[in-house]
Amino acid sequence: MSLNKFIIIGLLLALSAVNLCAEIVKLTVLNTTDTHAHVSGKNSGWTKLATLIREQQTLAGGKDKTLLIDCGDTLQGTQDGALTQGSIAIKIMNNLDYDVWVPGNHDFEFGLSVLKKRIAEFHGAVLAANMICPTLNGVYKPWKMFKINGLKVAVIGVTLPGMSNQILQPQSALTTIQEGEAIAECISSVRKSAPDIIILAQHQGMYGKKFNIFKLAGQYPEIDLILTGHTHQEQPGIKINSSGWLVQAGKHSKTLGVITFEYDTTHKKTVRISSKLLPVSESTPEDRRARQIADTETVYKRKVGEVMPLLSSPRPKTFESGITTLATLAMAETAKVDIAVFGMNCGEFTVFEKTVYEETVFRFFPFQDTLCTIELSLDELKTVMNEQIVAARKKYYSPMLYGAKIIIDKNWNAVKIIPGKTQSNKFKVAFSSYTLAGGGGKFPQLARLAREKSSNLQNDEITIRECVSQYIKKHSPLKLEPHKWLYHADRKE
What we know:
The protein is 30% helix and 27% strand. The protein is α/β, with parallel strands linked by helices. A 6-stranded mixed β-sheet has the order 4-3-2-1-15-16, with helices on one face.
């Protein structure tokens, strides 16, 4: 046998010996996102999701060998969440020993003071590297190191960018910067800590305004796993760079993300990542401890009043919806304004049963949008309504007015506004807080006008949902009839 053959055989034997000495350690990451306080349901809910979580922790060898992460929009979304201001979700998460919570945009809807209370109640780490919020200073961190099954695991949290424009509050109260900028600021300290695995948990989908997850993964190839949220999509797992992996666990407590790392401690590298989404089904048993919390906190059905049935099919040519009509009239009466403007996504056309319960009203008005008023001149109102009409033209918004009539041309421009009251220099106009803050970027001119001192912005701190409930109670049995000054836009060809 030649010398070269001896050398080759020796090298192979040496490599085999090294591989035999390699120790593979497993890490299980469990992930939820966009649960929106869905506590129980036929094919969803925390009470059943908790069963899946505990089963996976047992299969992994115990809680100390798993990492449990929630990517936000956790507190708000159901009547139970609204009436407990999210505390029911925190209690269940604590019972399940969540390690990380990354707040989502809807977790801010109860206000910063309430969010601070929920963060203080949470037993795990609250992470948001891209958030600048003086009110919450000291109660959240950009990232945290965990020691799981002998592995050092760094988790970076990122909430939704651009939220300073999403909620109605002083601009300095909250700012959330872009993901890349936030990671650039903290990645050096993460690297210095020499983690075995790096996880990015974010309340943002694969794509966003000026954002692409593949570009971000290319900039930071050391990130092994990205957990996404916000878009309510299900992604059981895809490769996003040479070694990185991405998972998104859906919405409404319907699925649990399960990610398994196989890590070679000898060579200091991940040799395999696998993942899946486990669905909650009708046959999934409820977790006893989660059910006990739900029974303590759950709000039962309560009658609001009676409304004459509102038929909505076929869809009216004016895009008028009984729900939108009801909200607009309720806002106008509650705020005692000259003009009220309210809108919903196109397609929200519903048949109301005669008896209306709190849970029915909540189903159509689930957000914490509050009733606000500003003062506008006729020209300013025309500018504002042009923005509203553009949104209607794009078919994702259907504005309704009380107290003024709009005439629009064939190009969908507001050419004339006829107020219902005697024309004056200023009109008091009611909007929801979400719309007044810009409606997620749809109404920049309205948001600009609202911030001006001359607008005399007032926030009544009453939700649109509460306005509607009070209106139904006051006028029960309520029959909605066409109002002289209640219009969508009359199109003039």
